Amino acid sequence: MKKFIAATTLATLMSTSAMAETIGVSMALFDDNFLTVLRNGMIEQAEGMDDVDVQVEDAQNDVARQLDQINNFIASGVDAIIVNPVDTSATQAMSNAAAGAGVPLVYVNRMPVNVDTLPDSQAFVASDERESGTLQTVEICDLLAAQGKDPARIYVMMGELSNQAAVVRTQDIDDVIANDQCAVEIQEIDRQTANWSRDEAQDLMTNWLSTGEPFDALIANNDEMAIGALQAMKTSGIVMDDVIVGGIDATQDALLAMAAGELDVTVFQDAAGQGAGALDAALKLANGEDVDTRVYVPFQLVTQENMSDFTTKN
């Protein structure tokens, strides 16, 4: 029987990988820093194994292209498929295609909309997004309280609205505030999407700054958007000590911004660990072994005090 498993059992899951010949991988987008680390985690895992061939395709943020890639993998006779979904609401068709062909499938990083009804030959490897936005928001609230910003005025920058991670991370912000987990009173000025993009975030932050609204913090759903917002703030002459900025992922660029005293908070998501875990799950399923429906790799809060622990991880 399938069950939820804690991240502490991930090492057990990865210790007895079965050998499949070919694994097809469809990534939502190659041009993304975090997903690049995840993709490389799979490739490096495969390079350390015998007789494992990983074929990686770029869906270029196109749902139709991704479904075509999955169908092509099936037609070419791969032993299993790994999918980092472009649109998590479109995964039922992907599951149906793989299940109909008898090909195991593993979703990675982004939760499929049909996660609760995945067949025995399918699984989901990621981190529990309910932790990410919660860790981020509570820490930002504590920093605002330490600065005496009560009430505090904030902007919220969201990822792609079709993406489950963006939805949950944004809901985490609301839940922290609603559940009295925030050390200060929060007054939200505005929230908009910048689609995980550094460039879009820079443009959005520039637009917000043009209104002249005073603000105390920016909470961004990922580091790329936080960095784009920081670039706009610096261009506008904002004194970074006066504003709290938080992201999620603990990418190398984010840690550089943190070392420069610009980014205050991020949350480490183990991209390479997710990639390696997804490959191992796919290999097990290809060999008819049981794999738990969900495998969670834990998030970890990163601040200027402990950032040195994460400089070589993402």
In words, what does this structure look like?
By secondary structure, this protein is α/β, with parallel strands linked by helices. The protein is 41% helix and 18% strand. It has helices spanning 10-14, 33-47, 63-76, 91-101, 129-146, 164-178, 198-210, 223-235, 252-259, 271-286, and strands at 4-5, 22-27, 53-58, 80-83, 105-108, 122-126, 152-158, 186-193, 217-220, 244-246, 266-268, 294-296, 300-302. The strands form 3 sheets. Strands 1-12-6-5-4-2-3 form a 7-stranded parallel beta sheet, sandwiched between helices. Helix 3 (63-76) packs parallel to helix 4 (91-101) and helix 5 packs across helix 6. It is elongated and about 60 Å long.
Average pLDDT level: 92
**Strand ordering within the main sheet:** 1-12-6-5-4-2-3
What is the tally of helical segments? 10
Nearest-angstrom radius of gyration? 20 Å
Poorly predicted runs? 1-20
Strand content: 15-25%
Head-to-tail CA distance between termini: 34 Å
Biggest sheet overview: 7 strands, parallel
In which range does the helix fraction lie? 40-55%
User: What letter string, H or E per element, gives the SSE order?
Assistant: EHEHEHEHEEHEHEHEHEHEHEE
Structural class: alpha/beta
Question: Care to count the β-strands?
Answer: 13
Instruction: Estimate the global geometry from the Cα principal axes.
Output: elongated
Structural descriptors:
314 residues; alpha/beta; seven-stranded parallel β-sheet; four-stranded parallel β-sheet; 10 helices; 41% helix
